[in-house]
Structure formats: structure tokens, C-alpha cells
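Input:
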Amino acid sequence: MARVPPENIRNYCIIAHIDHGKSTLADRMLELTGVIVGGAGMPQILDDMDLERERGITIKAHAITMDYLNHDGGRYVYNLIDTPGHVDFGYEVSRALAACEGAILLVDASQGVEAQTIANLYQAIEAGLTILPVMNKIDLPSAQPESVKQQIVDLIGCDPDDIMSVSAKAGTGVAELLAAIVTQIPAPKIDIELPLQALIFDSQFDNYRGAIPYVRVISGEMKAGMTVVFHSTGRKYLVDEVGLLSMKKLPVDVLTAGEVGYLIPNCKEVSETRVGDTIGDALRPMPNPLPGYREPKPMVFSGLFPADADDYEQLKDGLGRLKLNDASLWSEPETSTALGFGFRCGFLGLLHLEIVQERLEREYNLNLVCTVPNVEYRVTQTDGKVILVDNPAQLPHQTVIESVEEPVVAAQVVTPPEYIGAIMQLTTERRGTYINTEYLDPKRAVLHYRLPLAEIIYDYYDKLKSLSKGYASLDYEYDGWEVTKLAKLDILLNGDIVDALSVIVTEDKAYAWGRRVVDKLAEVIPRQMFEVAIQAAIGGRIIARASVRQMRKNVIAKCYGGDISRKRKLLEKQKEGKKRMKRIGQVDLPQEAFLAILKTD
Amino acid sequence: MTSFSLYIHYPFCIKRCPYCGFATAVEKEDLAIRYREVLLLELKRRAEEPPWRGGTVRTIYFGGGTPSLMPPEYVGEVIDLVGRLWKIEDKDTPPLSPPQAVGRWDIEITLEANPETRDIKAFRGFREAGVNRLSMGVQSFDPEELKLLGRAHSAGGVGEAVAIAREAGFDNLSLDLIYGVPGQTVESFRRSVEFALGLGIEHLSTYTLSIEEGTPFARSVKEKRLPYPDPDLMADQYDVLIDLTRQAGLDHYELTNYGKPGLTSRHNSAYWQRTPYLGVGCGAHSFDGTTRFWNRRDTRQHISAVHSGNDPREGEESLTQADVRQEELYLELRQSRGLEAGEVERLCKPEVVEELLASGFLVWDDSRLRVDERKWLMLDEIVLRLLK
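Output:
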């Protein structure tokens, strides 16, 4: 890999909505610059987790360095920094943007501009990035290049002729785009005389080498053997190695201002190498860090319990390992009367939760029960004490509560105008406060709302998608606390409260909630040896009830000419099925029961 | 190996029943002839192998498929061969039934038969060949249900078949009935049971319809042309079954089987009592006391394996201690005799025993623990909870 002077470095990212072709475009760029050998059926390089490929989204930030030989013979180094593609990871996106000078705004020529695109674009503009607008999928029959061009023009005020057209899939226009990066995206502005400042935009974990932060060097230089200091913690580390992020990590002697690479700081925990933190020279520390750092802040909480109590240690181990690589995942031991020993975990959002759950189940072969996710509440007690409650079971008794505040977000929904009515109705139902509506063009409106986070973490996004036939998109950011009247809704099975099923809901919706949850539970709890009585209660008062009838037959009666093995296997299968359920008292509760509360309709 | 039961599988049928998941094949004469040759070969070969070598045969069971499609002379040839290859548990056991005018041995020799014209003609021949027990696959006496089940006989035909079997000298007859059939009601099933019992049979086997993968029924259920068998209906039908068989004086000695006192199926009891059995023929299962093994299901593959001197076994499993415990519990509780106290302690979680006794699923009877007859259809659930 060639080293070039800073004026020949281009650091950029791609801003795009899910499915607008970001990963495919990245793959084409890597092929054309010879980083990978292309061909049909090549996996998407940047999404290297199975889960990322399956879900078609990027979960972690990634970076890759490419050599680019310009037509005039100039050698360039391109650093493509891929940003996470989901609303849960807004902060991670902002840090990745801060590592770049330019952004390719990639818009699907048939889908047009979507909320996430806008949100990330605004962040990029705010971060001072140069925007290079590109339309993708121009070869699709459903492409509407003219109208989408107009949307882009309206959005960033560019000249329509400046918008490039590509088909990442077919490779059309990608070479031209690579050439345009040289001329359109500025080289990093650097001051080599200043002491070292490097921005951590991602962090990986290696079993042998510990935490490996990915950095953009803003000023100065970083070498193996020097001692660096991490601003947020004040901790110092001796740098073992620095290097470039090619397909493999490529050690080099020094990383200088403008460059993107990694360092190995002999650090055991990724929680010490936080995204957004500033790395300085321990001998010449800069007084102020780079702007924009935020402590990792979980927004959504859920209890994770092993379905089989014997798997507790394995869950502990698995969570510990995931945390090594994910500084935004928070956990602490929790004990539930119904579910036994487990962990209270904090996540950036529901997707983050699902991903963690799925990875634990797949990679650590666990059956998990996740309790209903909730936000964190700020409770002011009558004695004046203020506490944060992230678990419904810990909500103090009504009599000692002065007030409860819940987190709210500023949300923007981008939608074709025909769905505005339905979306407004949905958002009002979800306690949204309407702010205003903007029009990007006659076919695209942005609705601004202030909305409790608790309403979003349930099924708001799914609902939004379904009532707009998939057209509407959502983005939000944290916007403070608001006082709310809340109630704790308990669920009783055969007369006993199941603490893990308790939820905090708004007082005025508690009855409807109770009814729906009880009905849904009656649907998902399978018939069993004994009748199951399901009740919902608020403060000890039963507000809804239902029951699951007793099961009357469960036997494999036929004896297949002495085929006892088959019987045993069928029994084993049933046993496996039972393992996925949680025995509470005499009731076998399937995992769906916990989700039932989430997806009541 | 002191003694074992012998199962002989004959896979051929005139046509396949739409619910059947057994190893069966539609009869083709040349294939059937080769298969019958190969059966004799397989018997001879097993007789030379441990642990079967030098053993004593205590029951013989011809199952299928439709073994009543075999020529009676051939059945006689098989029985003769068995008598030459092994000792027969003849002299030491009391006769199962009064001594016969025809028939050589008193060990139970069962043959599954369809109550159809072609089959019943051969009944006398089977009896002369040494078969002393017939198990007839009646399934139902209701014309609509028989049609759905793809069975070719009629209710009247069954009466005729029983009469002919009696004439031929069979004094030990068993009928199979099936319940949980779509369209069947509690009442129509009651009529079938009454009809069967009215024929004065010695033994009744009853099965709930299960939807077996790969059968036309499974396809119909998947395409929603057929409802999934209703467990509540089956539970109601089962209650009727218990009442009627008790009135008829049959002993409900095993979950799915009812017999006149002393006339239980000795062969099938080997499966439940975990005594050794040897299965020959395609898809047949064997158990030598520690290991279970089974032959290839495919008829042609089986023929060519045996023919070319290869082992027709497709798989085997050595049981772990946990497997054995699960089998013991499951199989003992299928039988009305249940578990003795020491076994209960060894196999069951004591707190679950208490819980299930209190809720009436289990009962102590003569210092043995068994499943309450009315709750027997919950056996799998009970076992899954009980097992240590």
C-alpha cells in the first residue's frame, strides 16, 4: 500500500437509507481499486457479520483503505468509512462523519430521499462535510431520476447537473464517481506541527491483542512505542503497533495527520476505547479534546435470562464477550422471582437489543428469555430523592412517588403526503406532540414530532412502515425528560404476579393494555396439564382476565413395530421445546409470551 | 441370548393408505417374490450371529404392509425355518389358549391381515401354517370414514372376516380401530367400538390418527383440505372407549390396547417391557437388550443389501443411561402395571410425583405407581415432567 502526502488523501463516507445500495457501491469501489477481486455473488465486504448480511444493515462502523490511481497518474489513498445504517446508532454515525471530509449522498433513484438519509445528511452538513450527491439504481425500470434529482436539489441546493448517476449493481458510473472524489472531496486540512489528536470512530476486540480502536488522526502523528492518553478516562497506554486498514490490518511505522488507521494500545477492554474519544500524546497533551464526545448511553432496557437456569454462566460469559466489542452495551446482574438469575441490559435501541439477543443465542448456543423492553424513568420521591428506574419491578410504590419523568425524543418522519393523515393519527395515539410539517417536494413531507421514547421502542416503527406501505421513514434523537402519569401493570398467572411481565404504562392506556396483553397471552401460551388463569392488575386491582384450557392429549400412541427410538426422539423434541419455555410455578411460558406484551394490537 | 421375540416385516400392500407412514410398497409380484426369498436369507444369517445364535423364540409377529398378502405356504415355510434355526419357547410356557386342533406351537404367532376378500380366503391356510393370532386392520366401521382412510373393506366384510377366521380355527383375534379421524364424531366412533366388541373379539388396539410426514394426509393438512386431528375430540372419544371396553370385560393393559384377561399381546409387550426382539425385513427394528438397530426402509435397497451379503442395517444406537431411564419410565407407564416403588424412586422427581398424585394424573395401586386411566392420553407430558 502506497503512502501519499496528505493532499492526496480522501476520507469519505456514504450516506444512504437501508437498501439504497451502500454496501454494493462500496464493494464496486473496492473492486475497481483492486482491493478485492470482483464477481457475481461476492459477499458484501463491509458487512462482515452474518447478521449484518442477513438483515441488510450495517451494525458497526467499518473502515477500509484503497489505493487510487488517477487518470493523470496521481496516486491517492481513499479511506471509506462505513457508517451504521440504523436509527439506533445515531451517535456512532456522527463520530464516523467527524472522521471524514466528504460524504457521498447515495439515493435510490426509485425510492427517493428518506428520513434517515435526511437525518444523516444534516449531521454531515453540520460536521462541515462536502456532499457529493449520487443517484443509485438508475437502471431499474421503476427509477424516477428526474423527480428524485429534484428532491436532492431541494434538499442540498446543488446544481442538478452535479448529481452523478450510478448503478452500483451493474458497476455503471462507479469509475467516474471514484474520479470525482479526487476533485470534489477536499483533502484533509492538517497541521503537522500540532501535538497528536486522533478521533476514535470505532473499536474492535481481538482475543490476543485486546481492544483495537479505529482512528482518524486529526493532527500530529502516532507511532508505535509512544505513550498516548485517552481523554475521557485520562488513562495512558503504550502503543504497541499502528497500522492501516486494508483488507487485513497492515502495520506501519507512523500514522500522520489526515490518515485513517488503527492502533494497538495494550488495552484489555473496549469500554476504555470509547467511540468519540480523543487520543493525545501523553507527553504533549492538548488541553481540549475533539468536540462531540458523549458517554455511551443506553436508551432501552430489558432483562435477559437463560431459559435453562444452568446456562447462567454461559450467558454471563457471552455477554462479557459481546461487551468487549460493544461499548454501548450495558449490563448488570438481575434476579427475578419468576425467571431466576439473569442480567438487566441496556441497549441503544430495539434493533440493538434484537441483535445482541440473536448473537447470544447463535454464538453461545443459548435459549434466552427477554423481558419487555422499557425506557429509563426518572422518579422524584416524596422525600425529594430522585432515582433512575430501568426496571418496572423497581418502581417505588405509588404512595412515595411525587412525580415520574420519561425520556422524550425529537422525531422526524419523512413520508409521501397521502399517508400524513394516518401517520398523524398514529403519532397522536402514541402521545406525540406535533411540531410542524415541511415539504421537501410536492411528493415528500417531513413531519416533526416530540414523542415519548417509550412509544417508539414498542411497535411504532413497524406500524409506521405498514400504514405507509413501507414509504415512511423515521429518525429521532434524544430530547430530554417530561413528566407523565404512569402506572405499573402486573400480570398474574394462576394468581401469582410474574415480575418479569410487569410493565410501566401510561395511566390512561393501562386498561386497554391490560385487556390486550391478557388476550394475547391466552393466545401464545400453549395448553398445558393445568388450566392457566391469566390476569392483569394495576395496584392490586384485577382489570382483565382470560384463561388457557387444560390440555387433554399429548401422547404418541402408535407403536411403530418396535421403533422405540422414534418415540424417544419425539419425546426429546418435546423436551427441547420445553427448554425454550420458562417454567413459572406450574406454567410453561414460551418466549413469545414476553414479546406478546410488546406487540399487542 | 436366552429368548427373544421375532418380528417379520412384509412391506407390500395392494395400495397405500393415505395416512400410513410405515415402510410399505405397492405390491409388484416379481419384487415381492425376491423379497420373500431375501427374508429367508436374512433369517438364516441372523441365526448365525450373536446375540441371536442359539436363542429361543418366544413370539413371532408378521407385520406390514399387508402380510396377509403372503401365500400361506410361504408363511409356513418361514415358521418351519424359524423352528429349525432357533429353539421355540414351547414346552416351558403354559399354553396361551386351549390346545388347538391345528397349529404346531403354543407361542403367540400373529399375522396382520386386512378384512378383505382376497385376504380372508387365505385365513385357513395361515392357521394351518401355524399362525394362531390374527390382527385385523379394521380402523373403522363407518363407510364415510373408511372412504377417507382409503380402506377397501366394509363393515359387513369385517363380520364375515371374523366368522371365517373363527371357522379356520382362530380363537385369538384382534382388531385395530383408529380415532381422531376428520369427520369422525364421538358417536360414530362409539358405533365402531360397539360393532367391534359385538363381534366377540379377544383383543382391541386403538390408535389416534397421527399425521405422518410425507403422507397424502400430511399434504392435505398442510394445504388445509383436511383439518388437523382435534385433540379434544380424541380425548372425548377415548373416554367412550374406556367405558365400552370395560363393559365388554376387556382389560386395558396398555395405553392403546385392550384384551380379554390373559390374552394380551405377548409380542407387543416385548417392546414395552424392553425384552430383546429381532426384526427382519425392510425398516424392521431390533433390540438386543442394550443396542437398538434398524434396517433400511427402502424395499429394493434392503433386497440388494441382503442379496449381496451385506448387512441390511441402516443405523443403530447404543443407549446412554439417560436414554435407558427415559425408555423405562415411558414404557412402564404405558402399561397398566405401572412402576414399583423402587423404580419410582430411581426414575422420577419426587416433587413431581407428589404434584401429579395430588392433581390426579398418577395413582398408587397395589404399591405400584401408574397413570390414571382417564389421564393416560397425557402420558408424554407426564413423562417429560416426571423424569429425573
